[in-house]
Specification:
Layout lengths: L2 E11 L3 E19 L4 E6 L2 H4 L6 H12 L7 E7 L9 H16 L6 H12 L3 H8 L2 E9 L2 E9 L6 E6 L6 H5 L8 H20 L5 H4 L6 H4 L5 H5 L8 E6 L6 E5 L5 H11 L7 E6 L5 E4 L1
Helix pairs in contact: 2-3, 3-4, 3-5, 4-5
């Protein structure tokens, strides 16, 4: 039988929630796999040429690495991918690919891991839990990693937003590697900046849980990563002051950038907001505005 996985895009960090908060979005990586005589992969959709490349493919590499680490023989697979997630643009493409590889290893290697164990493995490989937790669980997910000796555990809670807020993801042509984005950050922060972010993360979770439109402008502000990444992410300074106007509730970098996430009120005029975005981002090459909503978590099934 074939095994099918549908994994949502994610927007991590969410302003002040650096490495701690992520939001699942209705753009998907769909992977179907079945046993075969040799490993192969094909792809359709966004960035199909990259997704369909066998060499250096994160899904395949993760699948093989997990099985080898568990001392289980690697079962060759015929893999078909349909991708809707922008690659290298802060929308969780690597988290979805990692989870796909881990879960396929779990299924075809008969590892019998629980969903929590799959999440833990993916988070350890990613190095932080926010993207993979949101992709796996859906909704707004707050998460943390705990280390006890050699053991690493992931604590994560999914919050279903109280309102059906609309989401816009504004992307640019040029991607930004997460490693490069992390290299822009300082080694330490002031007490004032730390307190600023702690307060706003508290507001952020309350705003999503309670559907508090008026909190999001402040709740999505940040002093830990956005100010340092702004020079490499020109969409952010172009758009961030739209928060609080024309139905735009909050604006933040999506993941490590360069894309920007905009949360819109349920009754916002999306066409009007898009027109404002076009005016503000005219100097940036290859701008694309993607409409989506908050998504549920990953779905797996035998077909």
């Amino acid at each position: 039988m074939s095994y099918r996985l549908v994994l949502p895009a994610t927007s991590a960090n969410l302003g002040p929630g650096f490495d701690a908060a992520g939001l699942a979005m209705t753009m998907y990586l769909t992977v179907e796999a079945e046993r075969a005589g040799e490993m192969s992969i094909s792809a359709t959709g966004r960035d199909a040429a990259l997704c369909g490349r066998l060499e250096g493919n994160l899904i395949v590499e993760t699948y093989e690495s997990v099985l080898k680490a568990e001392r289980v023989g690697v079962v060759p697979l015929k893999i078909a991918v349909r991708n809707e997630i922008p690659l290298g643009k802060g929308c969780g493409s690597s988290a979805a690919a990692l989870l796909a590889g881990v879960e396929m290893a779990n299924h075809f290697g008969a590892l019998n891991w629980t969903r929590d164990e799959v999440l833990r493995e993916a988070a350890v490989r990613e190095g932080h839990p926010d993207n993979v937790a949101a992709c796996w669980m859906g909704g707004l997910v707050v998460s943390a990693m705990e280390t006890d000796g050699a053991r690493v555990d992931v604590r994560a809670v999914s919050i279903e937003p109280a309102k059906d807020w609309k989401l816009l993801v504004v992307t640019q042509a040029e991607p930004l590697a997460t490693t490069a984005a992390r290299g822009l950050l300082p080694a330490s922060y002031s007490k004032a900046d730390a307190v600023f972010n702690v307060q706003r993360v508290a507001l952020l979770t309350a705003a999503f849980a309670g559907g508090c439109d008026g909190l999001l402008k402040s709740a999505m502000q940040d002093r830990m990563h956005q100010p340092y990444r702004a020079k490499a992410c020109p969409l952010l300074p172009a758009l961030e002051d739209l928060a609080g106007q024309d139905g735009v509730l909050g604006v933040a970098l999506s993941g490590a950038g360069p894309s920007v996430l905009m949360v819109l009120a349920e009754d916002a005029d999306v066409a009007k907001v898009k027109a404002l975005v076009a005016v503000r981002t005219g100097a940036v090459q290859g701008v694309e505005v993607l409409e989506c909503m908050v998504a549920g978590g990953a779905v797996t099934s035998a077909i």
